[in-house]
Fold:
Amino acid sequence: MSFQTSSREAGGVTVLDLEGRITLGEGSALLREIIRRQLSGGHTKILINLAGIIYMDSSGLGELVSGYRAVKGQGGEMKLVNLNKKVSDLLQITKLYTVFDIHNNEAEAVASFGANS
Amino acid sequence: MPSKPQRVELVLETLLESIALAEEVGVCMAATVGFNEDDQYKIGLSVHEGVMNAFQYGNEQQREKKIRVVFELLQEKLVVRVVDQGCCFQLEDVPDPRSEANLMGDSGRGVLLMKAFMDEFAVEVAQGGGAEVVMAKRYPAPVRTPGSGRVKASKAVRKKRQG
Structure:
């Protein structure tokens, strides 16, 4: 399954729904482009919904970090929601769970943006 | 596990498609010898990372250079070798991406995942001077039924015998 994405608004937060694989050449470049596009449109509260992600490699992890840096650089926030076990394990192994604000449910994740701003 | 050692060798062009192809073969080899789905995923991702490393850093995306991937089914473990035609690297030079200084950086995660998912991991100098990533995973222990002392074949092995 190739990488697909769509965006929507929820409570003032831009939710990016990702599906498929985030790997070198497959999803990484597209993810970078989508985050940059949101930022250039003035959307700086970004929630990445990983519910549909079935596979991610180190390049995909790097792209999440790069996106996080870009959002932070513009004074915004980027959070993650709905990680499956595989993605969650990758974040544990690489200690990236200490970088990202990770949530299990979307409503709670959206509300947390308000709480921090 | 195989009754005698078996070996499969792939010689791949330095292309993005080669990464997925090698991974697919790795998963198939792992399934053949009875690794469960979780271990098949871990072996597949490790092969993916090894070949991606050769594609990006070893052969620097130069299509004419080859990536050699060797799978060996030995008596007690599956060994994977990924050989590139670039310059070899020292494992100690790869930054630990978990350290405070490198956490937000871009390198070291692929090596970290291979180390985490496989039982053995090393980087050697290949014959042509490139890097040879060598990793291995021991076969799963046979499941014993309580009290009987009988060895129960894993689900993957049973499937193979039936199919």
